[in-house]
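Researcher: Please translate sequence to structure tokens.
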Amino acid sequence: MSSSSSSRSDTADDDAVLNAPWVQADAGLQAWLPEISARHRHFVHTLETICSLEGSLHDFCFAHGLERFGLQRGVDGTWYREWAPAALGLSLVGDFNGWDERAHPCSRADDGVWEVFVPNRPDGRPALAAGSRFKAAVRIGDGKTSTASSVVLRMPAWARQTVQDVGSGEFSAVVPSSELLRRRWRHPRPPQPSSLHIYEAHVGIASSEPIVAGWAHFRTHVLPRVAAAGYTALLLFGVHEHGYYGSFGYQVTSYFAPSSRFGAPEELQQLVDAAHGYGLLVLFELVHSHASANSAEGLSGLDGSDGQYFLRGAEGRHALWGSRLFDYGSLEVARLLLANVAWLATAYRRMVKVAVLTRPELASTGSLVCI
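Model: Translation complete:
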């Protein structure tokens, strides 16, 4: 495409966005039309880049995302892959190999992705059995010399299920059931109603008892009352795994895993299915504006660097929340977050509500990927 035709296309796209009903109907947006236009052009450019490099947005999220990273079970065994460009070494450890970091070392590709293949047991069963725990053992430098290093255990970024040890409080990734994506849904997702009446809820506090309630409790005790009250949609907060319960789910540690303190992923699927049976749409709140700064159980410092998924230095830290701020200009960050939307929509058949930005300065950076 020539520069002149590209310019005409950009102008036409800008006009379509700026003349959209939702823009014209809000007088408060008029002062922000140049910024809206710039954001839209950035979005179009990023989408074109993704499609040029990886074929399509679908391949970007699925073939090169959900179907590549984390645990990928095959006929003869299981692949594990992790993007950790600054790591000096990485191995897969867990219940299956006695947590021995020497047993299954990964090899590093040029794109910073580490991978290892774990063959099935002699009887054909997967070595990584459903329900067993695993982590990444990452060798990181000390930041002072080129030779000093140490091995730390990190949570895999693409873990689909987690568990917290009752005694120590330590989180681990869990091998999910192969049935997670094979669920036979009893009820179709309801069509969008003409008028939304949304019931907002945090499952953990949805009980009159002094306990942390869960997916099953909400499904049997709360959901019928929500439907009877005439609501047409259910919005759940704190769905993603978050190590610090007091954060109300706003400091996420594992994006692809639902909070284990509320129950198993299959129980969340049952809740969604039951809600659909009542004719309720289900929305999860996504917290893609920031993440937990806890490296022991979250993404921060996974490969030993200050960056990777996040901006470096003070720019990558939220002064009020004490959390980490994503580097939205990185395609690997875009892949993680967009694939997260795709995974939750696929595994839990839900729509999303995106949490607002947490820092006003981000509004003028022009480096956001719209999701």
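Researcher: Any highlights?
Model: Residues 33-54 form the longest helix (22 residues).
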